[in-house]
Amino acid sequence: xxxxxxxxxxxxxxxxxxxxxxxxxxxxxxxxxxxxxxxxxxxxxxxxxxxxxxxxxxxxxxxxxxxxxxxxxxxxxxxxxxxxxxxxxxxxxxxxxxxxxxxxxxxxxxxxxxxxxxxxxxxxxxxxxxxxxxxxxxxxxxxxxxxxxxxxxxxxxxxxxxxxxxxxxxxxxxxxxxxxxxxxxxxxxxxxxxxxxxxxxxxxxxxxxxxxxxxxxxxxxxxxxxxxxxxxxxxxxxxxxxxxxx
Length: 246
Description:
CATH superfamily: Ribonuclease Z/Hydroxyacylglutathione hydrolase-like
Mean pLDDT: 96
Largest sheet: 7 strands, mixed
Structural class: alpha/beta
Number of domains: 1
Distance between the termini: 10 Å
Number of helices: 7
CATH topology: Metallo-beta-lactamase, Chain A
Low-confidence stretches: none
């Protein structure tokens, strides 16, 4: 089986806490290169970590908040000016095409209608349905996180490995299904013990961690509160640039 390489290009929250880039995880396997989320700072993060944006085949979006999809208009424009010719796929929950197009028009008027040498494709992921994205099979599980459209936790299966990703969500038992048997579960831990609507605290995660049935858990999307208390957290924490090989 080919190796699956996972790199955290951005591991931060919406507000750049700790100087971190917004959510963006690179997944490379069998000659394919995917981005799991693409926050507004992601193109900068790719250049910081030496990731070739022209090699990205697809972006898989967990939900439609700017710190998770807002980098797509910049990526598309970057590739247009670079003369890209191979197609780029954007896959995500229902509404992904409309929201990305609207964002493109707000940020760069006319860019959604511009002629390009490459085709920009959109694919809405039906909930709890396996969907092929290149060599990866993606399944979205709806989770409670208000974003004006369904929000997903994502389960990626590729080369005999499973990557689970919570996206942003308060605790839901759907995470048990997403993470079951996963080689890697990337999970939000926004605050240390403060409970807020739409997000998961570290304290809540600890209450359920023994039920997750994942081989490895890495925490991401940390607020300033979590970063201040990092020494109290024994679990593995993602930093920008962290690379994991499965």
